[in-house]
Amino acid sequence: MGQILSNPIIDKTVFSGTDEFTSFGISSMQGWRINMEDSDIQELKVQIVNTATDLEEEDHLALFAVFDGHGGPNVARFCREKFTSIFKRQFASIEQKQKQKHLESMYMDALENTFFDLDKELLSRSFNVNEKSGSTAIVILISKKLNLVICANAGDSRSIISIDGQAKNLSFDHKPNLINEKLRIEKAGGFIEMNRVNGNLALSRAIGDFNYKMNDKLSKYEQMVTCAPDFITHTLDYADDEFVILACDGIWDCLSSQDCIDLVHYGIHLGNMSLTDICSKIIDCVLSPDAEGSGIGCDNMTIIIVALLKNEESLHDWFQRIRNKNSNNKKNLISFEQKRRQIFSYYKFPDDDKLIFNATSGPPIENKAASTNNDKKGTTSNNDKEESHDEKDSKTGNPLNLFSLDKLLKADAKMNENVNTETMYEDNSISQMIASLSDAAAGETGPDTTDDGDDDDDECESANEKKRTNSTE
After folding, report:
1. What are phi and psi of 252, to 5 degrees?
2. What InterPro entries has UniProt attached to this entry (predicted)?
3. Nearest-CA neighbor of 294 among 255, 346, 251?
């Protein structure tokens, strides 16, 4: 199950933003893990320039991402700090002859090059080739000009879209036991043991993890672990398409794609929750009530909900539109409390649903630093609070009393939130030292790999046959 604390750190970092194209809410929590290794990006509008014409592309392009680190937080932090700027640089470097390509292909080329450039820049710094840490990357581009969602994925984080209340996967999890992943790993000289690469890494694609990428006889696509992303695209139809979700595997270990869609719809149906409220309540649902179970619910957790706004539609109007659709469809929605009881059926919760979250609901902390992800000041705000209840209502429980070591770790995490990415690889933080000292005993450098109950393997293997899948509804 990996390194865990004696009690979970349940304070949540929340952030929200809106413009005329998309709105989002995000919540993240360290939970039972000894470090917070997740990072994220929310860019409501990415300004892109093509040097071949020196003209800014006339497109409203939104970018969202979740990076789920393992073996330490450094790679995920680096991805958060550098991804957008590298993507802009890659798009700008496309030559004039490539200008004849469709804009969709240009975006995908720039995204793929960004994944590989992140690896290249990591190695060019003070990273050691034997560095064992890495990060998954799930990235969503939403193009207004193309009316298109592009998902680039490496690892087992996941993105989905709600289409009239039904879940459609925009990515598939890169697990070592998938047939194409298994064949690549074995051809590169590796093996699969306990559904892990060389019995160690629980996913088969990642940024970082350089000790799996050092075969100089193989291309970057053929390495035992590659950061090459797979792509799925989706043409938007605002009559049916409602919202996009991105989340790390800490969420998907506990919920199927459809479960997550249903919980978001339930939160919208209540009528008094913002997007961040819904994200936070989903995290409350899937956080393990104890550390005695199978390990489900003991990972870091990050989830982003992106509302797809029609032209001239406010976030308030979007909430009302989705609620009206729920009423018209008479959809039977499961509550947060019911889902929590289902996930942790072994645990004896209080009979009163009002008490079921008391031990797992921490106060939200607004992520001020997240505003640096936006090119223009003022593009991110808490405007979705027009749909939210009083802030006090979200504090349904008091933080647990942690042992002194846990408090020390938490304080250290706070001090390192805004770490300088140029020097962070020499970070000798308390949590890093403890993590490295216990690494051998824990025997894990990757996230837990537990079947979330989805029966998606056949679909995943079929999707994996093609590097890029263009899927429209």
Report:
1. -75, -20
2. PP2C, PP2C_BS, PPM-type-like_dom_sf, PPM-type_phosphatase-like_dom
3. 346
The burial of 128, by beta-carbon neighbours within 10 Å (0-12 exposed, 13-18 middle, 19 or more buried), is given as: exposed
Using CB atoms within 10 A of its CB, is residue 423 exposed (0-12), middle (13-18) or buried (19+)? Answer: exposed
Alpha-carbon separation of residue 419 from 87, 337, 422 (angstroms)? 22, 37, 9
**Domain range annotation of the chain:** 4-463
In the block, which residue shows the tokens 């223009």? 376
Q: Give me the CATH code for the 4-463 domain, please.
A: 3.60.40.10
336: alpha, beta or left? (left if phi > 0; alpha if psi -120 to 50): alpha
Q: Is 378 left (phi over 0), alpha (psi -120 to 50) or beta?
A: left
Over the chain (473 residues), the average pLDDT of each successive run of 10 is 81 96 97 95 88 66 97 93 95 68 90 96 71 90 96 97 97 95 95 93 94 92 96 97 97 97 96 97 95 88 98 96 80 90 93 84 57 36 39 34 40 44 40 38 36 38 38 39
Residues 2-15: b if buried by 16+ CB within 10 A, e if exposed: bbbbebbbbebbbb
In 117-255, beta strands by DSSP E? 134-135, 137-143, 148-154, 158-163, 166-169, 192-193, 196-197, 207-208, 230-235, 241-247
d(CA 47, CA 264): 30
DSSP annotation of 311 reads T
How far apart, in Å, are the Cα atoms of 253 and each of 205, 222, 257, 259, 336?
A: 18, 28, 10, 12, 16
Neighbours of 334 (CB within 10 A): 14
Question: Could you tell me if 347 and 290 are in contact, meaning their C-beta atoms sit under 8 angstroms apart?
Answer: yes
Between helix 275-286 and helix 257-270 the angle, nearest 10°, is 130
Phi-psi region of 147 (alpha: psi -120 to 50; beta: other; left: phi over 0): left
* 199 to 60, 122, 425, 439: CA distances (angstroms): 44, 25, 26, 15
Residue type, 194: M
- b/e burial code for range 312-326 (CB count within 10 A of at least 16 → b): ebebeebbebbeebb
Q: What single letter denotes the amino acid at residue 62?
A: A
